[in-house]
Amino acid sequence: MAEPIISVAGLTVMYGGRCVLDGVSLDIQRGEIMVLLGSSGCGKSTMLRHIIALERPASGTVCVRGVDINRCSAKELEQIRRAMGVAFQEAALFNSMSVKDNVSLPLRELTTLADPVIEIMTYLKLSAVGLGDAEHRMPGELSGGMKKRAAVARAIALDPEILIFDEPSAGLDPIVAAGLDDLILFLKRAFQMTMLVVTHELASAFRIADRIAMLYNGSLVTVADKESFRASADPRIRQFLDRVPDPVGESTTVQSRLCELAGMKGASA
Amino acid sequence: MNPLERVGSSVIDGLGYVGGLSTQLWSALCASPRVLPIVGKRGRWRAVIGQMAAIGVDALPMIAVMSVCTGFIVAMQVGAELRRFGALQYVMDTVAIGFTRELGALLTAIVVSGRSGSAFSAEIGTMVVTSEIDALRTMAIDPIEFVIAPKYVAALLVVPCLSVMSNAFGILAGAGFMYVSSKITLAMSLNYVADSIELRDVLTGLLKSSVFAIIVVSVGCMEGFRTRGGPDAVGRSATSAVVKSTFLVILADVFFTAIYYMVRKD
What we know:
The complex is a heterodimer of chains A (about 270) and B (about 270).
Chain A: E1 6-15, E2 18-28, E3 33-37, H1 44-51, E4 59-64, E5 67-68, H2 74-82, E6 84-87, H3 99-110, H4 115-128, H5 144-155, E7 162-166, H6 174-191, E8 194-198, H7 202-208, E9 211-216, E10 219-225, H8 226-231, H9 235-241, H10 254-262
Parallel strand pairs in A: 3-8, 3-9, 6-7, 7-8
Antiparallel strand pairs in A: 1-2, 1-4, 4-5, 9-10
Helix pairs in contact in A: 3-4, 3-5, 4-5
Chain B: H1 3-31, H2 44-57, H3 60-82, H4 90-129, H5 132-138, H6 143-182, H7 186-196, H8 199-225, H9 231-263
Helix pairs in contact in B: 1-6, 1-8, 2-6, 3-4, 3-6, 4-6, 4-7, 4-8, 4-9, 6-7, 6-8, 8-9
């Protein structure tokens, strides 16, 4: 098998003595869409922040294109960051800039392209995400789905090899979310990008993923293709797929539950 | 935690804060050539111009009003005492020396801290909680260069100018008092001013205002970067920026005045 474009090995993250990620290892191959699934608070976003070098781990390594991003030089890290596009959960558009200026920012800052070329490239990227007619609007004037599309346009401005999405469907209605899934598949086909998508939306995951990795309480449960994942008998995966809630108490009636919460006797009645 | 540990912890926190300010200042100074026209990155100087307008031009009316009021207050208070000794002409000396050495720079710093220091903190704090700073870092754009350096350069250029304007407004207010109270003409008042102040006084005021500008920008930006949480945290950071920068400005002023007092030979 070819060398993975992203390789996470033994990633351990501690926040104030609490272990958030416990020796997680994951390889992402060139050109695939890897979906990182998991319930809220299981460490998905933390893992993503370490993969994009926003935080340093307690132990373990994160290698991108064969370079350990926590031990490389600032110049190497800059090169790696140029090869990565990140679409944040809240879009993270600069509110004081128009959509066009947001998308053209990396082109202006990191390239020596002439202004007319930047204008054309910006329009192309906005058109690719279906926002060709919204370039002069401010982020505050966009809907949630449009903001996420604009964030994707900015993330692909420099034609990165790797595209990373943090909860792309969060807070969107199913139709807009499905539109974003289509966009992710289109970008993969059009630009042959490697993608890491962090989400807890099952429908979206099964639609776009080549492989699915699942985190549970800071540990990696499995990395599998869609069919194997769907057929898994692992109770943690089944609970997630079958939408079974964690037990919150032993009470079966409203009254006994209220008694239990109040710490009164007879809670189990 | 016993009282000794609490004091030790506060001292360590304070030293850490000052260390953070120093590191941030050094990084911003290293990045500042890249925000200048011609030698800097393309278009980045426009951000400096925008900041100069926000810090300087927009603050001028408030500084003018505060300086005129303070000039009048100082002239009236001093005039009431000096009139008893028949030394009313020394009112202008007091106002001129007071403003050039002290009040011009201090008033300017307090206004800039209240307006721009809090604005820097709120702006950067909002960028932190909405992941805009993270977005810059993932795009390989240095937040220090993109967000902070233009503020430092702009403040270092306009705050001393505002301080000079404050001196001028304060002195004119003193002259106004002299005319109203004793019919001493503006030309004569300005003669008193020219006789009383030295170049050293003006330069001291300019040096002070430059240091105050650095303090206000450093604290405002630092509080913004330390913001964690949601919108309420942004508000707390803005308040904290004004309180801390005003405190540090007055502390620095005491330090400067003590040095000035010690090195003055005559």
